[in-house]
Amino acid sequence: MSLPHSPRQSRLHHVKLLRSETIGRVLRLDDPQTIGVSSQTLAEEAIVEGNLALAADLIRYYHNEMRIMHNIMRTWIQDTIRYMVLKSGTEDGSATHAASAIMRTFDAYPFGEAERDRAVAALDAGDSALTLFWLERMRLAFLNVHDVLVAWMQNLLSSIAADYQEPAVLETILHTHQDIWGDRYAAWDQMTPWEKVALTVEGMRGGHFSGMGRRGDVIVEDQGDRFMVAFDPCGSGGVLRRGDPETGRSPINVTLHGVNQESYLWTWQKTGVHWYCSHCAIAMEWLPGHKRRYLLRPLDHTLDHGAPCPWYIYKEDRLIREEHYPRTGHRKPDEAAPVQE
User: Which end of the chain is more exposed for a tag (fewer CB within 10 A), N or C?
Assistant: First the structure.
């Protein structure tokens, strides 16, 4: 494996691994020039430039990016299995125990830890080629499992739609909402707009392996009243629908129940939405519109599987454009109206 070419002008000074007091951990709060660049790519550039301390920090951070999303996916699957066991008539305690036991291996298995440690050890030993080898192996340790978990989640939701009718998909996502999105975005309203961008990008960068190289490359643009964060493709639902641009793997074949046949406010009033992707409508638009009046993070979903997927992070809630609201059955809040408790 060869080293990448050193860029003509270093961009590493834009990388900012800083502790966010709002969420209580280190977050890549980079400048716009690098916020959407894969942590793996930046670690490689740091090696080329001899900035070994930054390279080691980025390797460790990249591992954490991937582990966070791995934990989210396995928790989502565990909660969904629990829901299915409850629907079968089993008591709550037994359902919780069964779901936890099924997912225990995914919780305890040390994905990428040996590869991370070997990459850092090779870096300390001055062996750049070996560092790159283990860095790539670390990515693959998570990526292959990640894609299986995404397909598994799609298939679980498809089974729920088939066995319990389509509205049960909404029911199960609400069942797991707090464990997944509620906890992750608990501090959203206390975060700066750029922290919101950084947290969003982190999840879709190393977390979901977005971009054509599946390394976690994300498009970020400042559009005045908002930031646009776009994925081409999104590394979870986008790869599920489009196929894997890195390996050429085909899109995941869906059954009759793999997409919705009826339109709902929580599927943007569309049919043909993959069940995996429906959680974006629910967690980012439909449910926040009910709970906080304002949408959390609206997006431009399209049924064109080859198109990028843009999300929007507004600099203030009041700036969220009116056009986003009607598709999930909401109206833009009247700033003068009192909040309904």
Answer: C
